[in-house]
Design brief:
The structure is a single chain. This protein has one domain (2-250): Glycerol-3-phosphate (1)-acyltransferase (3-Layer(aba) Sandwich), CATH 3.40.1130. It is α/β, with parallel strands linked by helices. The protein is globular and about 55 Å long. It starts with a helix and ends with a helix. It has a seven-stranded mixed sheet with strand order 1-7-6-2-5-3-4, with helices on both faces. Helices cover 48% and strands 15% of the residues.
Amino acid sequence: MTQRLVAICWFTFVSTTSVLFFLIALLIWIITRPFDRRLVVLQHFTCFWAALYTWIVPAWRITIEGRELLPRKTPHVVVSNHQSLLDILVIFNLFFQFKFVSKVEIFRIPLIGWNMVLNKYIKLKRGDKKSVAQMLRDCENALAQGSSVLIFPEGTRSPDGRIKKFKAGAFVVAQKMKAPILPVVISGTNSALPKHSMNFHGRHNIRIRVLEPIAYESFAPLSAEDTASMVREVIVKAHDQIKGQTSETSG
């Protein structure tokens, strides 16, 4: 009962504050759009908006490693494992410039989805070949304009925290645009907010680790599929290491 009550309070706070935050976002968009084509100011406000919803839950202790590796000038294809609805809120804690690839249904959510439209995040309709092709073109355009692109190459959340096979789309884009790949590892969100659950699940240590960027030259000779497998191995290894460290700490 307590877990459900905490969850209700959290979702109520998200819903009510989103009205104010969207109005602020809209004002930022109107004022800055003429001179801020990449929407950098709006992105940083969006990072604050999203990160706030993790900060207000003291039981979610977020640790960030490797922040110094984040791209500041050169756009990267950023790929991360996907465990929970919390993942994107956690990633926004990094406060850097990116365009996020998300399923089209999320863009229809009032206020939060509308802000995603303002930010020119990238829509994807699952199972639709035309939508996939358009998503790849939109990613290429974002990179060409100087913004990194964030993709969850598993395609959907893992039900048990295990990292599933990576789809090739992100790596097709990286190869075509000769863009470096930035692997990011998330650990702990699966326990904090599991798939198919909207309840509060107590105290959890959530860790996000930014790994060393992978230069284009490192995967240029590989196929997109082989690149996906290679990057997945890097992320799986780091994820297992984080889980081991977390177990030792809690023990």
